[in-house]
Amino acid sequence: MRHREVRELMTREVVTVPRHATFKDVVRTLAEHDVSAVAVTDPAGHPLGVISEGDLLPKPADQGDWFRSLPKPEPWESGKAAGTRAEELMSGPAVCARPDWTVAEAARLMESQRVKRLLVVDEGDVLVGIVTRGDLLRVFLRDDDAIRHEITGDVLDRTLHLDPAAVSVDVVDGQVTLRGAVGFRSLIPVIERLCRTVDGVVRVTEKLAWETDDTGTGG
Predict the structure, then answer these.
(1) What is the pTM of this model?
(2) Which of 59, 103, 142, 162 has the most Cβ atoms closer than 10 angstroms to its Cβ?
(3) Same domain? 134 vs 150
(4) Same domain, yes or no: 156 and 198
(5) Does residue 47 sit in the same domain as residue 130?
């Protein structure tokens, strides 16, 4: 089976700013390129962090009504609201992926780090792209026929060496239904698990019979 890699989904032209860019420089860059985030890089192209619109919001939020701000016990100039340069505004260190990572690997890192995007770096840790949650979700736009072909050819035939006529594969909107019969009951969860790993699969429902129950569970 072939899983889609980050290099196939990422945006290669990344909008960047230097670490000394001013607050207004960053806002201007976001507006000019119509993006929601920029990467902060050093002169060698190594990513230092990311500045998103969310990182900039503390500044206007802190400029509220003067009277309402008086009771605040803490000074207004704190955290990112006080930042004036990119290195003070960014979220860092940068959370990075490699171009040859699979969609699943990138998605797991996004989830664990609770970020909306990953900077993609090469072997020298130089920035080569950016991948967002929306980019990763594009695998679910795969054509149903392409998913069915991969399950039938790669999973059932070449990986498990099953008779193609033994198991039928129906795919509708990424939802896979397996029907037919296999030799051993223990093979059914293996088939189901492998089908779930195919890019674009939303759900797998198996309606498979078996000839021999080798699980020892009966039924």
Answers:
(1) 0.78
(2) 103
(3) no
(4) yes
(5) yes
